Amino acid sequence: MLACRSATRSAQHKPLTYASRTFSFSAPRSRQRLVILGSGWGGYEVMRGIDKNRWNVTMVSPSNYFNFTPLLASCSVGTLEFRSAVEPVRRYTPQVKAYQAWCDKIDFDRKVLDCVPATPPLAQSKPGELASFQLHYDALVIAVGAYSQTFNVPGVKEHAHFLKDVSNARAIRSRIMECFEQANQPTMSDIDRRNILHFCIVGGGPTGVEFAAELHDLLNTDVKRHFPGLVNLARISLFDVAPRILGSFDEGLQEFATARFKRDGIRILTQHHVERVEAGRMYVKEKGEVPFGLLVWSTGLAPNPLVESIGEARKDPKTKGLTTNDECQVIMDSTGQADPDVYAIGDAATIVDAPLPATAQVANQKAKYLYKKLNRLVRGRAHTEPFVFHNMGSLAYIGDWTAVYDRTQSENLRGKEAGRLAWLLWRSAYFTRTLSIRNKILVPFYWFMNWIFGRDLSRF
Prior knowledge:
There is one protein chain. It is built from twelve helices and 25 strands. By secondary structure, the protein is of the alpha/beta class. Helix content is 30%, strand content 26%. Helix 2 (43-49) packs parallel to helix 10 and helix 5 (166-183) runs antiparallel to helix 6 (190-196). Belongs to the NADH dehydrogenase family.
């Protein structure tokens, strides 16, 4: 998860400041202090693998859980329940101190972090007053992720839904059912029903494609049984500025997915540009006004505000993320050298001259590399081996028990799969990658229960 907030927000307040030493449960000073910013694919994996007997570990994140992001599309339509897509950070307490907070500023010279709680202020607090605190570190891991990219299209933040957090999936699920309940009212005209049952997705990458596929499955199974008179009015439209969907996949798999979507009635509108979004409608350059009941926006990543506020570090000109060497150490702009005590991984960082895709797979492998490196260093052993990414391939679900699996860039078992076999690989991969035993039980349990009894379409 993201572990910062906009620096401009903190500048508007004059917070009370408390040093970290005032906490009565401060850890002994005999161990080096490792602070991890973020509880996403990078930060959470570092916390899991780090030697907590030798490091004094602190995690700072605005969320007290880890999102298993590949399952969010399934959660947003009720195929899985939300609990099966999250892992609690506090599984590792008291070995790890965890603060639900934002990091607003990093002082690299003093090795100090300025943090602000992400929890609601106390009732007795004065308006605009936020109590801040400071943390000192010996080693710092910046894994704050990135925000959703809106390309400054007016109205997107106000009227579109994103799909990066379990809270987003919950809001989308509620909105889908709200659209059908509204369309079911006797006062609605057929035109109004068609408009509110128009589900638009902007972004033809894996997230947008998987959500469109999961939504299509929902409409043609459970919604068809519960709202038989409305399902024929529902439409799914997928917009993208690129000439093809799934642009990072093999061309043959792109064509397979496109043909599958067209056969299922999902409209693919590539090379279309959204100019602005208003309540219930968006304006597309090539089509004009497009009404919708739900808009899901999935068009890439924008830099995290904390990363933007760091002026001391070198930034990648394309991604605007922190630039690191091949050992994941942040390169400082003033010296051109890497800071040996500051690391950056995941969507917040790019290795110099070796750009990698902003995927969970990359972040997870960087995290494993980093905790092994830190565990060796704390034992006094040298570790100068560079990070090497091992591409395991890319998966995307495209609906009705079919998927695409691209291994053309993989180091092992090169090739590609499409159809039912790829779907089995997709499900087995996500099942095996879930972290806790609890979720390894919950995920197949929910899959089986929904196959037998269908999804729950209640609004609550």
